[in-house]
Each structure stands twice: as C-alpha cells, then as structure tokens.
Amino acid sequence: MQCQCTWTCCESKMLKPSAFGSSFSSSALLSFSKHLHTISITDSANTRRRGISTTCPRYPSLMASLSTVSTNQSDTIQKTNLQPQQVAKRLEKFKTTIFTQMSMLAIKHGAINLGQGFPNFDGPDFVKDAAIQAIRDGKNQYARGHGVPEFNSAIASRFKKDSGLEVDPEKEVTVTSGCTEAIAATILGLINPGDEVILFAPFYDSYEATLSMAGAKIKCITLRPPDFAIPVEELKSTISKNTRAILMNTPHNPTGKMFTREELNVIASLCIENDVLVFSDEVYDKLAFEMDHISIASLPGMYERTVTMNSLGKTFSLTGWKIGWAIAPPHLTWGVRQAHSFLTFATSTPMQWAATAALRAPETYYEELKRDYSAKKAILVEGLNAVGFKEVGVVAIPTSVFYLNPEDGKNLVRFTFCKDEGTLRSAVDRMKEKLRRK
Hints:
Helix content is 34%, strand content 18%. It has 438 residues and is α/β, with parallel strands linked by helices.
C-alpha cells in the first residue's frame, strides 16, 4: 500500500484536513500529461487557460524489448525483438503501477517526489538495532510459516491495546510479507471465481488487480468529495446475499478519510444481515489526526466475519522491510494461511524479531509520530492553499487509476507528506515560486 497523503479536489471550495492526509479544493482542473510536467489548468473564476493541455494515458507502456542473437564466434547478428509483451488476460489492463511510473518520472525530470508514499527518512534506531542483533544472533533461516512466535504474540498484544479484542496469536495471527501480501492471501484464500466483492473508490490499486487474479466480480461504490462520505443508500442497494465480501481501508488511502463510527455501524449491520465478510486494511491506524481510529472487527458481531490487515512499514518508516500481518478468527485464518503458504511461505526472520521490538515500543513513540506528521501535514497544506498548479517540478499522483471509472478521479490529485520537512518545504517553495495566486 502507499502512505500519508493529501488529496486535491478541484470541485469544492474549501481546504478541509482529514485523517492522515488532507482533503482540499481549488478552482483548478488538473490534467497530467504522460510526461508529468505538462499540465493544463482552467481557472473557473476568469476562465483563463494556462500551460499546455495534453492527455494522460492510464498506464503508458514503459518498456521496449531488444535481444542480441549470436550465430558464431566470427559473425554476430543483432536483431530487434518486436514480439508483444505477454501477460495473462486478467492482468492486461494493469501493466506498470502508477507509483512506479511517477517515481521514474520524478527521477527523470529532477522533480521532488510527493507521489509515492515512502518516507525519505529512516526508521528508529532501536528497531534497526534489533534487526542487526537478530542477524548476528543467527536468526537467518526460514521462519515458521505463519510467523515467529514472539512476533505473533506482539501483534496480538498491540491489537488488544488498540481494539480491545483479545486474539490467539497461534491460531488467529498470520505474518505476511507486507500488507500487500496480507491482502493477496486474504483474497486468494477466501474469494472464489465469480464471488461479488464491494470496493470503495478511490482505492489502493492492488485491490482491483488482486481481485481480478481471484476471478472476483467487483462492485464499486464511489466516495465523493469534499468529505468522501459513504453513500448509505447506494451501499444498501448494492449489497445482497450474493455479496461475498467488502474490502475497505480506514484510514483511507488515497483520500485520508476516516470511516466514522456511524458509517462502520451501517457496514456492520448490512454485513451481518447478508452474511458478508469484511477485509479491513488498517495500515494507517497510527496516523489518524482529527478522530480516533476504529477497527470494524471491534464492533458487535463483526470479529467472526472480519480479516484485519496491517503492517510495520508506515508506522515505523521501514517500508522496505515488507512486514505485515492478518488477524482473523480461525475459520477465516485457515484460508489466509493456505494462500500465504503458496505465495511466500514465510517472511524475513530477522526482520520479524526487529518488528517484535517495534510493536513493544512505549505509547510515547506513537504520540511523537503523530506530532511529527502533524507538522509535516501543516507545511504541505499551507503550501497547497497558497498556490495554483502548472509545471513546477513536483510529482503527485493522478488519481484516475484509483477508480473503476477513471473519469471519477480526473479532478483530483494525490500528494504524500511522509517526507522530511526540508523536502516538503522545497516542494512548497517550488510551487509558491511559480504558482502563487495573483
């Protein structure tokens, strides 16, 4: 999954912070070109048009294949391989992820990357030291498939503190290679071809891809600005006895929205009524600002039908370690573990030991984390409020890729603020220099 972000909405009139990101709006309509730096803007106040208008293909091809064929030692013939790229039909529409594309373009154009949600600062020393010590202690061979026992116990303890739920670390916790694998193992382990699964758009792009691999039938409900509230009546008319699961994300990537208790109660009631599962991606649970995070599994009658997924990377700024987990009752854990066994089998052993130390950090760590990210968010929100948009050398993510219907996201752009304050200020300065409103 990607990280802390702000969400530019060009349809409403005010800047409104929410969750781990900030929703805001302007009167500008953004249209990113395939080369990132060419953007057209329509100012609704005076209909002036600035910049150069181009189109933005959803997934441009980034690769060409060449092969060299040697016939003998004295005569070498070079041939161009013009054969088309090959991929299974269920994955044809996805190709290169938008995060990879935009990060490559940031490098190519020397732009500040506020697109892909990885921190440009390192994680805490006490966690890195624990990893080094585990390596030195010889904890370098395959871990037990569903996790190092000490780490499973640490996950269960953390979950009890956060949700009030007591789970069995041996029977209800599965360690995965990042939350993305937890998502894959959950979907592939519990969804059959033809099963209906409801998504809330915009959504993290791996959801649609993994559901496609599972052969699921996707039904999508769009959350719309400025508050991205759940359209309750639409949800009621969409969910049915044919629905197998709802896949949700709170705090939400990429909008920063947090599902309210009232919204979660509606989802829970409908799931219980229609015997529907919930797959809840909660990787940003420690990066909630305006309200407290609520795990839907903690609501009455929901634990028995919920898989809760989380990871280490966002909270501890160690995204490259790829340490995640899934928490579910035993009858659902069985399917998750079956898929996990044939996806990765086991997750990095020394990193699990280090993650154990991380999850046992005192509450002061999380309090400091929230203060730090609040300061970063304030820098970016202030800067975005102060400027408009055109070519400035700052990368964001065009959001049409997060919708089944790309048109729904054409007026929105995603910025991340999980960067050091110097990088954020540089990005804001670039925008202010060229885009300050007159």
